[in-house]
């Protein structure tokens, strides 16, 4: 005969295994989900462009974003973290990737983003390479599941040129 | 006399065998746990493949008590990834999101800035004094998998050690008293 402890152990083991299998299956299903994101973003204004006291270029800007992110959501999606980066290359760095703005999207109903925003974080260079620099705006998303694998994706949007001189 | 002596001898040898087999089964449990942990370390390349979220700085994504699975590969770190990093002079590693990356031309050395999703400002206040960036060697791993609530087990056990000892005692008793 089986004692109650053995029964309990067997039940707990089965439960844990089933949960693990469900998580694995959910992640596997998510891997086959191909989202189709439509998005645009344009810089509408350079608010301030100057050299900081520590010698680094600093830009604050305004841009509009229009992004339809509904397709990122599946039944296993807890939230989507969406953000816009400014990306450029200069003589010092092969990649500069600076977050300008981000937002947490809790569900599908909030996944149609149409906003004009000021950069939440300023674009700060490591040095003074930003005058006249061509900078790429890129939309990124990071999908957090209820349980399982986290996924990322990105989409290059528009390019903009910074002015040749600092604003006052 | 001879008959009783035989009986005592047989019982004694039975018990010795049973005790031995119990010790071995206990050893199996401990070593298989160790094998799983070390195997995960090898598979993920991270010195701590599983971490428990201890603070609310990444809410609503990660809450206290959730667990994260980490990997450590040579793939470059990019903005948006959630990394676990160590700061000199701080015991507990931090789980936050990368918001800035500057990667050098030749050396591919990298400067990283992080921020908690639920925090207002970036992490420079959490870094060591005068430290502006994280480098590669600060990073313990990047989060790739997520499981809610499971980490509460370890939080409860570290904060209420008596529960830990009770649990270990009960499990040990179970192993020792169980037959077949």
TrEMBL record, chain A:
Family, per entry: Belongs to the SPCS3 family.
Places the protein is found: Endoplasmic reticulum membrane
Keywords: Endoplasmic reticulum, Membrane, Signal, Signal-anchor, Transmembrane, Transmembrane helix
Superkingdom as given in the UniProt entry: Eukaryota
Signal peptide bounds: 1-28
InterPro entries: SPC3
Reported function: Essential component of the signal peptidase complex (SPC) which catalyzes the cleavage of N-terminal signal sequences from nascent proteins as they are translocated into the lumen of the endoplasmic reticulum. Essential for the SPC catalytic activity, possibly by stabilizing and positioning the active center of the complex close to the lumenal surface.
One GO-annotated biological process of the protein: protein targeting to ER
Pfam families: SPC22
Membrane topology label: Single-pass type II membrane protein
PANTHER family named in the record: MICROSOMAL SIGNAL PEPTIDASE 23 KD SUBUNIT SPC22/23 (PTHR12804), SIGNAL PEPTIDASE COMPLEX SUBUNIT 3 (PTHR12804:SF9)
Record's keyword annotation contains Endoplasmic reticulum: yes
GO cellular component: signal peptidase complex
Official protein name in the record: Signal peptidase complex subunit 3
From TrEMBL, chain B:
UniProt GO molecular function: serine-type endopeptidase activity; signal peptidase activity
Top-level taxon of the source organism: Eukaryota
One Pfam family this sequence matches: Peptidase_S24
Domain Peptidase S24/S26A/S26B/S26C: 37-102
Matching Gene3D superfamilies: Umud Fragment, subunit A
Membership in a protein family: Belongs to the peptidase S26B family.
PANTHER family found in the cross-reference section: SIGNAL PEPTIDASE COMPLEX CATALYTIC SUBUNIT SEC11, SIGNAL PEPTIDASE I
Protein name as it appears in the record: signal peptidase I
Organism per entry: Lolium multiflorum
Lineage, uppermost ranks: Eukaryota, Viridiplantae, Streptophyta, Embryophyta, Tracheophyta
């Amino acid at each position: 005969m089986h004692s109650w402890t053995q029964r309990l152990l067997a039940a707990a083991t089965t439960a844990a295994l089933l949960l693990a299998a469900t998580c694995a299956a959910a992640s596997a299903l998510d891997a086959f989900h191909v989202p189709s994101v439509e998005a645009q973003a344009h810089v509408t204004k350079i608010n301030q462009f100057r050299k900081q006291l520590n010698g680094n270029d600093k830009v604050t800007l305004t841009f509009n974003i229009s992004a339809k992110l509904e397709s990122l959501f599946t039944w296993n999606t807890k939230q989507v973290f969406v953000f816009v980066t400014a990306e450029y290359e200069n003589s010092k760095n092969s990649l500069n990737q600076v977050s300008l703005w981000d937002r947490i999207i809790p569900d599908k109903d909030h996944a149609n983003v149409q906003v004009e925003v000021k950069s939440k974080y300023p674009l700060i260079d490591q040095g003074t390479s930003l005058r006249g620099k061509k900078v790429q705006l890129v939309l990124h998303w990071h999908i957090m599941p209820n349980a399982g694998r986290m996924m990322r994706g990105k989409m290059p949007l528009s390019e903009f040129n910074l002015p040749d001189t600092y604003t006052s | 006399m001879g008959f009783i002596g035989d009986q005592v001898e047989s019982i004694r040898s039975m018990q010795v065998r049973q005790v031995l087999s119990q010790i071995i089964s206990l050893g199996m449990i401990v070593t298989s746990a160790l094998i799983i942990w070390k195997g995960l370390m090898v598979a993920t390349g991270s010195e701590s493949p599983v971490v428990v979220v201890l603070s609310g700085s990444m809410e609503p994504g990660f809450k206290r008590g959730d667990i994260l699975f980490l990997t450590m590969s040579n793939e470059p770190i990019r903005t948006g990834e959630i990394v676990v990093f160590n700061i000199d002079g701080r015991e507990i590693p931090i789980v936050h999101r990368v918001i800035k990356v500057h990667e050098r031309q030749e050396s591919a050395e990298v400067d990283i800035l992080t921020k908690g999703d639920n925090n207002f400002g970036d992490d420079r206040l959490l870094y060591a004094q005068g430290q502006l960036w994280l480098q590669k060697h600060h990073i313990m791993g990047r989060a790739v998998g997520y499981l809610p609530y499971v980490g509460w087990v370890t939080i409860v056990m570290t904060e209420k050690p008596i529960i830990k000892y009770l649990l270990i005692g009960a499990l040990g008793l179970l192993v020792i008293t169980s037959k077949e």
